Amino acid sequence: MHQPSLSQQSVPQPRYRLAALLAALLVFLATPAWGSELPASVSAALKDAGIPERSVAVVVQGVDQPQPLLRHNALQAMNPASTMKLVTTYAALELLGPAYTWKTEVLADAPAPNGQSQLSGNVYLRGSGDPRLALEQFWLLLRQLRARGVTSIDGDLVLDRSAFSLPAHDPAAFDNEPLRPYNAGPDALLINLKSIRLTLHPDGERKAVSVLSETPGDDLRVDNRLLMTADACGDWRERIKVKVDGTRIELSGNFSAACGDKALSLSPWPADVQVEQLFRALWRELGGTLRGTVRDGLTPSAAHALAVAESPPLAEVVREINKYSNNVMARQLFLTLSGERPASPDGARRRITAWLAGKPLQLPQLVLDNGSGLSRSERISAEGLAQLLLAAWKSPVMPELMASLPLAGVDGTLKKRLGNSAATGRAHLKTGYLEEVRAIAGYTLDSRDKRWVVVFLINDPKSRLGKPAIDALLKWVAER
Question: CA–CA separation, 267 vs 258, rounded Å?
Answer without folding.
Answer: 26
